Amino acid sequence: MLVPIFTLKLNHKINPRMVTIGKFDGVHPCLTAATQAGKVFIHNPHARGQRPAAHRLSHSTQDSDISLLNINQAVTCLTAGKLGPNTTGDTLLVGSQTNLLAYDVHDNADVFYREVSDGANTIVLGKLGDIRSPLAIIGGNCALQGFDYAGADHFWTVTGDNVRSLVLFDFTGDGKNELLVGSEDFDIRVFKEDELVSEMTENETVTSLCHMHGSRFGYALANGTVGVYDRNARYWRIKSKNHAMSIHAFDLNADGVVELITGWSNGKIDARSDRTGEVIFKDNLSSSVAGVVEGDYRLDGQTQLICTSIEGEVRGYLPAGKDLKGNLMDSSAEQDLIRELSHRRQNLLLELRNYEENAKVHLLIGVGVIPANTQLQTALSVRPATEAQKAHVEERVNTNNTFNLPLTVPCTETIIRAVLIFAEGIFEGESHVVHPSVQNLSGCARVPIVPPKDIPVDLHIKAFVGGKTSTQFHVFEITRQLPRFSMYDVNFDSSADPPTGSVTFSISERPQRVVMWLNQNFLLPEGVESPDVTFNSLRGGGLLSVSMASNGQITLRTDDIDLAGDLVQSLASFLALEDLSAEADFPVYFEELRTTLTEVDEFHSVHQKLTAAMADHSNYIRNMLVQAEDARLMCDMTTTKKRYRELYDLNRDLVNEYKIRSNNHNALLACLKSVNLAIQRAGRLRVGKPKNQVISACRDAIKSNNVNSLFRIMRAGTASS
């Protein structure tokens, strides 16, 4: 059994997912974590007795090994590592909702302090693509931003939603790091600098990412799911009722391959094989895990796995020695495994007994037998909304011999007793069961499906099939893919007003290729052989029309700019287009964006006025306090009371102004998110280099406050009129 080689109890609470280790003097590893009241603590048991200078850093009164860094803001993320080219030790990076601090702990000095309008939800440090210097990359309000050692902005791009996790590693195998981004829109995106090269869709917010080895990486979701991908292919995943607070890659069983270490909200720590997800080790802390890191904390030349809890408990584990022979679990865990195998054996024996009894019944009375050629058939169709049921996609499941059996065969018409469908992101709990009553049994079952997003989904279907008098059933399994744009029904009414929004681009492909794409991604009726099709959106209403001219020009008409972007990306992927420029116009959306930009200017103006007013009030309070204390020392109680009453009123005004400033800041963040999303949407209407050029040009236009140029870029892909 693997046991901790050291245990610490720090007298500071630790914020979840805000733990790192840094060698700030270049030699001694220090456990560093965000704690309460806008502070970061640095635990350094290797340099006892050294007193810090008096800048930001101070010693904890509770523990001589701990120094406290006062940030004076709520910390949202932190990390440590080599940022400067000529620095001896690691740089500590601390993010908040408004600022990013790079701090030299050894010299007790700021390296840089930058305002970040999009906030900093998560941070990663390292090299990206061809950018020569290491970058501190922060993920915030739909935006990614990278700073070098001098605080210069070398990288910026937008992504689909608020960023929750980042990791840098060589995803494509070209020897250069790509940036993997997990966000609240359930997507994992891969950026080669500012170019989006790959995208994986999950079914919840991606809260953690970590590199395993090669092109393999681990991930964790907000619903308790953890798993491993190898590039775009998912190897395995498991789901827990608890939340994964931290994941880390570490070779705990010393077999030369790292395991996925997960720290859970109930205090459990487990290590899983990167190949199968099998648990090879587990332990429990007394409270929720805050973070999992690694480092040579004992300075003995061996790297330890270090696990921390939110209550300040720290445990260190060494990789297994040869004496354990890979057996990291305690005896109780082995007993749990034996019980699980015994339970599985009982289930298999019960299943075998059922088969034997079923065979006896068939021999004795000849009922319940289904024909040997019975097959399960499925069909997908679009169903518009009715008074009784909202719009949906219908999955029809039936057997091939339900109604065509000869009358001479007694009781052999097959019926479907139940249907189970497993699908990610569609059903609550990822599964759905249809179980008709005995009176309504037939050989056909219809299952309504309402996909919440336009993504392709694999439907894993299991059906219980038997005869009308069967008490035991055969299980048929089949997998069917739900097309990406399945919630769009063909519209044959040509009198409807066309959408005002459109995107137009040209391709060098035959119309038949576009028709193939339509058939693969939509549920089309038979006989559609033209690329000119109009659809009704069953999810949000409105029309979508696709048309292709003889010169290869394609026009997509819709008022939903997100849908237009999805269509462009899907078609470009199907046709393997590396670069695609387009012209777009979405009058309604662009007018809303113009209003948002006006609101951003107004919020910035209010923010500056409130900041100035609070500074004036602070100076006034300082002077008033001096006057009040002077009067008290002179025993002038009348003046003292008067000054303190005025101080009370000023303090109340300050609190009210802070509330106004806070509301103004939240409204400003919402507007900035809308602007970043607009840039991302404009980029998704193009592919490859034109996409990157649009995003870069849009940012330059916003920096220079050139609104007219911004809209020209979004429409034409270039700032030229």
UniProtKB/TrEMBL annotation:
Domain named BBS2 platform is located at 495-575
Q: Which InterPro entries match?
A: Bardet-Biedl_syndrome_2_prot, BBS2_CtH_dom, BBS2_GAE_dom, BBS2_hp_dom, BBS2_Mid, BBS2_N, BBS2_pf_dom, WD40_repeat_dom_sf
Asked if the record carries the keyword Manganese, the reply is no
Indicate where this protein resides in the cell: Cell projection, Cilium membrane; Cytoplasm, Cytoskeleton, Microtubule organizing center, Centrosome, Centriolar satellite; Cytoplasm, Cytoskeleton
Instruction: Using the record's annotation, list all stretches that form the BBS2 hairpin domain.
Output: 587-684
Q: Name one GO biological process term.
A: determination of left/right symmetry
Q: Which residues form the BBS2 C-terminal helix bundle domain?
A: 689-715
Q: Which GO terms describe its cellular component?
A: BBSome; centriolar satellite; ciliary basal body; ciliary membrane; motile cilium; neuron projection
Q: Which keywords does UniProt give here?
A: Cell membrane, Cell projection, Cilium, Cytoplasm, Cytoskeleton, Membrane
The main location is membrane
Any idea where the Ciliary BBSome complex subunit 2 middle region domain is? 165-272
Residues covered by the BBS2 GAE domain: 390-485
Residues annotated as domain Ciliary BBSome complex subunit 2 N-terminal: 20-126
Key word Cell membrane present in the record? yes
Task: Kindly provide the name given to this protein in its UniProt entry.
Answer: Bardet-Biedl syndrome 2 protein homolog
